[in-house]
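thought: fold this chain, then report.
action: predict
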Amino acid sequence: MFAFSMLFLIIGMVAVAVDLSQLYEARVRLQNAAEQASAAGASQVNYVAAESGQASLLPSFASACRSAGDASSGMAGSTTCTNPEGTDEVIATVTIQAPVAMPLPILGGTFTITATFTAAPVVGGLIPVG
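observation:
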């Protein structure tokens, strides 16, 4: 009887480990998408303004950032890109809901995974922030 009950315990532990590995894989995928999106947005430098010493981004930075994040994450409309007032940074936030089918109904559900990455444009040989 003990060996039979241990079989169910081991199967349950393997199922939880598989579910957690799926969550981790989704988190890594989203972090990569956020990095791609912020780099794409930060590459939209307004070089005319940069020559005068004021690094700024073109208005198209948001669409470039958003399309790169959506393409990398595989979820259309999941990327939000902002340019904080008075800075030359691009913040890309990629949010996706990853459904996790847990073997026990009590533990099952949907988790929301969020990844954020900040990048600055490369102007004058400076290294981007990341």
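thought: worth noting. The chain has a mean pLDDT of 75.
final: tokens above.
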